[in-house]
Structure formats: structure tokens, C-alpha cells
Amino acid sequence: MQLQEKKQHYTFTEYETLEQETGERFLYYHGEVFAMAGTTLRHNKIVRNLWSYLQEILAEQKCEVFSENVKLELAPNAYYVYPDILLTCHSEDISDDEQTFIKYPSLIAEVLSESTQSYDMQDKKAWYFKIPTLQYYLLIFPKKPRVEVFERNGDFWIFRFFENLTDNINLEKLNLKLPLNVIYKGINF
């Protein structure tokens, strides 16, 4: 058997085929693919806690919540990432369940890790803020109770942070309150 040389540049179609054939997730940036790293149990618990809570709260609304395995399109056929949590209420995102990515999120949450923290807090945030439908961006710290919340206010973003497990994050535009003790349920600090 002869080994094939690793491809250096992929079209979007080749990228989607690569993910389907390998069963792996890759970040896609202008033809380059980057393998997604594994994560910690703590990271996974926090994502699961948030997903479960949002899923339950939004069950009556026409919204969908996805975790870690659904792509977000940042630039058509050019830039795709996998946020930890994506919430969308947009009909185009919800109507076709064969679609492999979301275009119109209302909320994005990232659980920070040492390897991705600066990327999530800077580069991704700058791209996320360009999404016209995005109302909230949450950065969740796994090693201490801290959630940074960015909320769209017209052309500006309001920044708040929460550090007490008794705090509730009011996400008024989505008509929900997000308790910190739910996000960090089962996490020992």
C-alpha cells in the first residue's frame, strides 16, 4: 500500500467530503484544514450542562441548540468553525436538517481552553461580531466560575461578566435567564 501525500489545499466540497470520510472535525479557513483537538471532561460537562439547559428552556420556542458538532459559516465556502454551543432561531438554519452548518446564530458560547483561549477571545470574537443575527457571545472559563457576556446593542457590544455561582445571566433578547450554577453543575473548583 502506498501512502498518499497530505493535501495542502481543499475546496469547500473536498473539505466536507474529508469530514464525512474521516468522521473527524476540521476548522476550514480559505482552503486549509486544521484538525480539532480533543477536550477535557470538565469542558465536556460544561458544554453538556449549557446545551441541556437551553434545550429544555427553548423547547417551546422555534429555536434549535447545537453543541460542538455543527459548523458555523463565517465566510461562505471559505471559513467554518465549530463553536461549543450554537443557538439559532432563524428559519433558514432550522428548515433543512440535512444542512451541515449554521449561518444565523442568535447565541454562541465557547468554553475556553489553554490551547484556544486567545483565538476564542480575539480572532473568533472579531468574526462573530460581524454576524448580523448574533445577539450574545459567551466566554465560559472552566477553571473558575466566570462567564463573560457580550451583548449586541445596535452597532455596539456591551460587556458584562459574572463570577458568583448564585448569579443569573439575563439574556433578555432570547427571553431567558441563565444561572451560573447550572453551567457549572458538577464542577469542583
From TrEMBL:
Pfam annotation, one family: Uma2
Gene3D superfamilies for this protein: tt1808, chain A
Alphabetized InterPro entries for the sequence: Nuclease_put_TT1808, Restrct_endonuc-II-like, Uma2
Superkingdom of the organism of origin: Bacteria
Keyword Nuclease found: yes
Putative restriction endonuclease domain segment(s): 13-174
Single GO MF annotation: endonuclease activity
Keywords: Endonuclease, Hydrolase, Nuclease
Protein name (database record): Putative restriction endonuclease
Organism for this UniProt entry: Raineya orbicola
